[in-house]
Design goal:
The structure holds two protein chains of two kinds. Chain A has no helices and nine strands. By secondary structure, chain A is an all-beta fold. Chain A has strands spanning 9-13, 18-23, 31-38, 45-50, 53-56, 61-64, 70-75, 84-92, 103-108. Chain B is built from no helices and eleven strands. In chain B, strands 2, 4, 5, 6, 9, 10 and 11 form a seven-stranded mixed beta sheet that branches. A four-stranded antiparallel beta sheet of chain B has the order 1-3-8-7, with no helix packed on it. In chain B, β4 (32-38) and β5 form a beta hairpin. By secondary structure, chain B is mainly beta. The termini of chain B are far apart. Classes of the chains: A mainly beta, B mainly beta. Chain A binds chain B through residues 32, 34, 38, 41-46, 48-49, 51, 55, 57, 87, 91, 93-102, and chain B through 1, 4, 34, 36, 43-46, 49, 91, 93-95, 97, 105-115, 117.
Chain lengths: 109, 121
């Protein structure tokens, strides 16, 4: 089970781009990297998933270097509503999800 | 995306009573559902995997006789906290794994319910 390490908290001003980096040194060949967002008293929400290089959707981008030992979630032009906890997970096939500590992002006006 | 609901959204009960929480997949079928527990300011902790038509698989340290899980259909799983005590007060979240659906960008996608806040007095 690949463990992930990410900063406990980050602050950002509205309108800025936020990059949250996650380390997963023991990632296996079949593992995917997945990011979830969680607001207080709500269930997590899937943001993005990738295997290598770059993935982009309407919400975020995910950058994964060639060695796949880390990944960076990029949120363009954050707003106050992006204040949440962001979890980086390494997922193997259809196996269970195990959440780490997450990164608490606070967007400041 | 797929929708998962939970009922109730919050519940307050007396110590020693049992509480049932329902998790439903509203627009898809899920052979596998998961139950998590989250204490304040902490991460989600997987409690058990609920498989339709079979016994649940519990994570280490989770008492199966205290947290009863039933997955009677492809759209419903229930978690019953038996003889609840104040230390069981927590935020309980379920998720369902999508089957039989082409999701272009995901390899393993779970959809989470909104959670149930349990307070045991």
């Amino acid at each position: 089970l690949a463990k992930t390490t990410q900063p406990i908290s980050m602050d950002s001003y509205e309108g800025q781009e936020v990059n949250i980096t996650c380390s997963h040194n023991n990632i296996a060949t079949n593992d995917y990297i997945t990011w979830y967002q969680q607001f207080p008293s709500q269930g997590p929400r899937f943001i993005i998933q990738g295997y290598k290089t770059k993935v982009t959707n309407e919400v975020a981008s995910l950058f994964i270097p060639a060695d796949r030992k880390s990944s960076t979630l990029s949120l363009p032009r954050v707003s106050l509503s992006d204040t949440a906890v962001y979890y980086c997970l390494v997922v193997t096939g259809a196996n269970n999800l195990f959440f780490g500590t997450g990164t608490r992002l606070t967007v400041i006006p | 995306g797929a929708v998962v609901s939970q009922h109730p959204s919050w519940v307050i009960c007396k110590s020693g009573t049992s509480v049932k929480i329902e998790c439903r997949s509203l627009d898809f079928q899920a052979t596998t559902m998961f139950w998590y527990r989250q204490f304040p300011k902490q991460s989600l902790m997987l409690m058990a995997t609920s498989n339709e038509g079979s016994k649940a698989t519990y994570e280490q340290g989770v008492e199966k006789d205290k947290f009863l899980i039933n997955h009677a259909s492809l759209t419903l799983s229930t978690l019953t906290v038996t003889s609840a005590h104040p230390e069981d007060s927590s935020f309980y979240i379920c998720s369902a794994r999508v089957i039989g659906r082409a999701v272009e960008s995901s390899y393993n996608e779970q959809f989470f319910g909104p959670g149930t806040r349990l307070t045991v007095l």
